[in-house]
Inverse folding.
């Protein structure tokens, strides 16, 4: 367990938090927790594990948290998400994974997140998104944040399955190619410094 950071369980609000100190985290001086705690309270509706040293989200890490609606994992060192990592999260609506070290997105990665409406993946190291990555487990997703990564190409089937998505942010990547039809089913997309809508393209002001 960590030698720094603070653990707190608010039983009335059903919020669990274990956070490190931001300044120490940015400076690389924070030890923090390195694994998702195995004893997260099952009644929790929000779990806040931001600003730590977690590297891997392991299978069944949250399988007992059927009531969980919000999960914050931003500002860690996550590079690997195991198959089945989100099993049991039947009520989750918001998942924050920004500012980690995720580099590749692949099919099966989001299985179990059928009720998730907001997924934050900005400020990672993402350079590759395999076709149909989002087809399984994110059929309720409305907002997907992928800005500030290293994405270079959007294939035709990159966002296949995101039938409910209303906002996709892709600015501050290295995008040089978007295949025909890749974004046609989406309502509102930020690409680089431009905003793209079906049949309309204009610069942000």
């Amino acid at each position: 367990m960590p030698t720094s950071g603070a653990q707190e369980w608010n039983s009335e609000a059903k919020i669990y938090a274990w956070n490190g100190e931001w300044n120490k985290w940015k400076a690389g001086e924070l030890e923090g927790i390195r694994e998702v705690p195995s004893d997260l309270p099952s009644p929790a509706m929000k779990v806040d594990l931001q600003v730590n040293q977690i590297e891997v989200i392991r299978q069944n890490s949250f399988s007992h948290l059927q009531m969980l609606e919000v999960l914050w994992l931003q500002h860690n060192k996550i590079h690997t998400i195991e198959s089945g990592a989100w099993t049991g999260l039947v009520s989750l609506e918001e998942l924050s994974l920004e500012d980690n070290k995720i580099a590749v997105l692949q099919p099966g990665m989001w299985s179990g997140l059928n009720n998730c409406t907001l997924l934050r993946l900005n400020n990672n190291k993402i350079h590759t998104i395999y076709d149909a990555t989002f087809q399984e487990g994110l059929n309720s997703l409305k907002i997907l944040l992928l800005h500030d990564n290293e994405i270079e190409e959007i294939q035709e089937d990159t966002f296949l399955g995101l039938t409910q998505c209303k906002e996709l942010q892709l600015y501050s990547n290295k995008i040089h190619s978007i295949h025909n039809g890749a974004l046609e089913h989406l309502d509102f997309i930020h690409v680089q410094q431009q905003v793209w809508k079906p049949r309309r393209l204009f610069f942000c002001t």
Notes: The domain at 102-205 is CATH 3.80.10.10 (Leucine-rich repeat, LRR (right-handed beta-alpha superhelix)).
